[in-house]
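haha ok so turns out i had the wrong file open the whole time. this is the CORRECT one, sorry everyone. sequence first:
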Amino acid sequence: MRILGFKDDYSVIVDNGDGATQIFDKNSLGKKYYFQVPEHQNSLNASIKATSVEGNFIELKATIQKPSDAEGSESYLAGGDSFNIQLTEEGSTDSYISIGITVDLTFTEVGETIEIPVGNIIYEGPDTPGEGGEEPEASITFEGLPATYTCTYGDFEIAGLQNVRILAPNGIKNLNVTISGEIAALLGMVQLPETFDICNMDDDLKSTIVGLGLVTDEEYTQLHAGTCTDFTFKLEGLLVLIPQVVSSGTSTFNLSVSDGVSTKDGDITVIVNPKDGE
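then structure:
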């Protein structure tokens, strides 16, 4: 998602027409989110809200529709479909000028990319965009996230380390973990990929995660079913390995949680032998 000519307080609210909503903002750039849609649904609704550099509020409402001539003549949204939004100003950022959506919108199925023609992007907003309603509140809350920890090479403990508690009244449907930084190149030692979903693991990955003490078998059963509403992610077994194998630098663990209605994420950062000012 990219937006030009506007302040960084923009938001993109996507809903599936059945009451399910996800909110994206500047912190969502470059990240992948998962969104459930009803059966026989061929479009998503988007509400883009932004403030121009002159301070004018602008809102655009659009329908992102899957082409009827998609792969296999299947026009309904299906697992594996994805789209990328790029937003640019249309010649000016004056308040009477709406936001434009470029044609860089694609749906992807089974490794093939299908371009959506301009005709499949339907503008539903007024000629002069006005103020919209309040954004829905996210239903997911965190305790212990985001967090930053510092330690020294060779430490067997990390001072102040807390578990992450995730509360999701609608049930946790996805808990995606993305690991980057210094530790990423060393994950092979514990047989972990750089990105994985705690709610959907194969037997080998599940065995590793359970062995590290991050999740119990009982917890995974609930997470996999999407019925877990209160989960404590016990990260100590994984994070304490960092200062034992990383001599210096930063390692980041991004946790992205989806409850099928909204998505929320945060970073845990571990800095080994921090430099002055870190």
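Confidence is low (pLDDT under 50) at residues 89-136.
again sry for the mixup
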